[in-house]
């Protein structure tokens, strides 16, 4: 699955650090996440400050600039739904991304959707 990269870190450091804190709490044994947090803490004083203050800011909606490896730069609307965890569960976070109708981003997303749905038929077991 392609990875989207946030191209607008400077506009969203609190929500990025907050999301990282939530993820670190949900997945305490994730060594790659721990390494990323360590690297961000070493390289970015603002991230380090936000991380140490424990200030978690989870944005519910907005716009993000992302870079997709095939579609390029995209400015997309996003909405985030947080479903609280039941006892013993990890909870759920759903991110919905959308583009303005008729925008270049909408065309790019339609191309990606077409590429994903055009999967050749697989031979039937029999």
Structure description:
40% of the residues lie in helices and 23% in strands. The protein has 126 residues and is an alpha+beta fold. Strands 1-2-3-4 form a 4-stranded antiparallel beta sheet, with helices on one face. Strand 3 (72-83) and strand 4 form a beta hairpin. Helix 1 crosses helix 3. The longest helix has 14 residues, at 13-26.
Architecture blueprint of SSEs:
Layout: E1 5-6, H1 13-26, H2 31-43, H3 45-53, E2 61-68, E3 72-83, E4 92-98, H4 104-117
Antiparallel strand pairs: 1-2, 2-3, 3-4
What is the H/E string? EHHHEEEH
Radius of gyration: 18 Å
Distance between the termini: 30 Å
Low-confidence stretches: none
Question: What is the global morphology?
Answer: globular
Strand percentage: 15-25%
Please bin the fraction of helical residues: 25-40%
Number of helices: 4
The residue-averaged pLDDT reads 77
Structure class: alpha+beta
Strands in their spatial order, largest beta sheet: 1-2-3-4
The tally of beta strands, per DSSP, is 4
Most strands sheet: 4 strands, antiparallel
Provide a concise account of the structure shown.
The chain has helices at residues 13-26, 31-43, 45-53, 104-117, and strands at 5-6, 61-68, 72-83, 92-98.
Question: Which features characterize this protein?
Answer:
globular; 4 helices; alpha+beta; single chain; 126 residues
């Amino acid at each position: 699955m392609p990875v989207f990269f946030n191209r607008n870190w400077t506009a969203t450091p609190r929500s990025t650090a907050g999301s990282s804190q939530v993820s670190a709490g949900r997945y305490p044994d994730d060594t790659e996440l721990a390494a990323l947090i360590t690297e961000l803490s070493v390289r970015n004083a603002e991230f380090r400050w936000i991380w140490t203050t424990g200030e978690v800011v989870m944005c519910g909606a907005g716009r993000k600039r992302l870079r997709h490896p095939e579609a390029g730069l995209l400015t997309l609307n996003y909405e985030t739904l947080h479903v609280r965890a039941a006892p013993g569960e990890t909870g759920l976070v759903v991110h919905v991304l959308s583009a303005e109708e008729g925008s270049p981003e909408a065309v790019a997303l339609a191309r990606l959707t077409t590429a994903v749905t055009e999967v050749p038929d697989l031979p039937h077991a029999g």
